[in-house]
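Hi support team,

I've been running sequence recovery on a batch of backbones for a student project. Most finish fine, but this one hangs at about 90% for roughly twenty minutes before it completes. I'm not sure whether the input is malformed or the queue is just slow. I've pasted the structure tokens below so you can try to reproduce it. Let me know if you need the job ID as well.

Thanks,
M.K.
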């Protein structure tokens, strides 16, 4: 088995909080042979050792796929879209499990591989569901910005020598290699349930920051 990707975000080397590493640790305990590949992560990255994957890691994609029968895509690096699982790179690959939404199901309609993906489903989500998910996301990111604003105010009240501003924090966040963008604080309106279920984080954001101007 080959796990493609160890980083948290596509086309970066940042392995902090990477679900691909968690997945790799699970797969390592359930398969006879596992290779982990990532074109950006260094072989000496300490998180590979932390998750017990240092010995399985390779920087050579051809080597990772050479003996693989099952390929699991853990990170949506662009280079993996170019990988030819049928010819040359992975002659023995029988199935591709896409955990990173890198491919469309139709792309494998003419290939001999079995293809499945996390959250792919068999039909498109309704516009109402998409809108509900978007509203929940906006509520959480706006609420988070409000919490950062409060933290800045607390820091400035209790730190006499050094002061900062929310704009400065947003500027620093934007320099992150993983593309962090801190939203602008504001009022968070109540959000609708998703498929009949209320989500705690959007509800908390609306409760704490719903009354602000």
């Amino acid at each position: 088995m080959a796990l493609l990707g160890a980083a948290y975000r596509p086309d970066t080397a940042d392995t902090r909080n990477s679900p691909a590493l968690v997945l790799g640790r699970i797969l390592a305990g359930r398969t006879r042979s596992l290779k982990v590949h990532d074109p950006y992560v260094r072989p000496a990255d300490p998180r590979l050792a932390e998750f017990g994957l240092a010995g399985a890691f390779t920087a050579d994609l051809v080597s990772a796929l050479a003996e693989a029968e099952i390929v699991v895509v853990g990170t949506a690096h662009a280079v993996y879209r170019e990988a030819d699982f049928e010819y040359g790179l992975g002659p023995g690959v029988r199935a591709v499990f896409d955990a990173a939404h890198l491919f469309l199901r139709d792309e494998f309609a003419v290939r001999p591989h079995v293809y499945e993906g996390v959250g792919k489903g068999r039909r498109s989500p309704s516009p109402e569901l998409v809108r509900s998910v978007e509203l929940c996301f906006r509520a959480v990111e706006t609420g988070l910005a409000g919490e950062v604003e409060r933290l800045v105010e607390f820091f400035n009240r209790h730190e006499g020598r050094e002061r900062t501003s929310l704009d400065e924090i947003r500027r620093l966040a934007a320099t992150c290699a993983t593309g962090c963008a801190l939203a602008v604080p504001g009022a968070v309106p109540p959000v609708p349930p998703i498929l009949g279920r209320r989500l705690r984080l959007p509800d908390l954001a609306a409760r704490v920051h719903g009354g602000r101007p």
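--
Follow-up from support: It reproduced on our side and the slowdown came from queue contention, not your input. Strands lie at 2-4, 35-37, 57-58, 70-73, 95-98, 114-117. No action needed from you.
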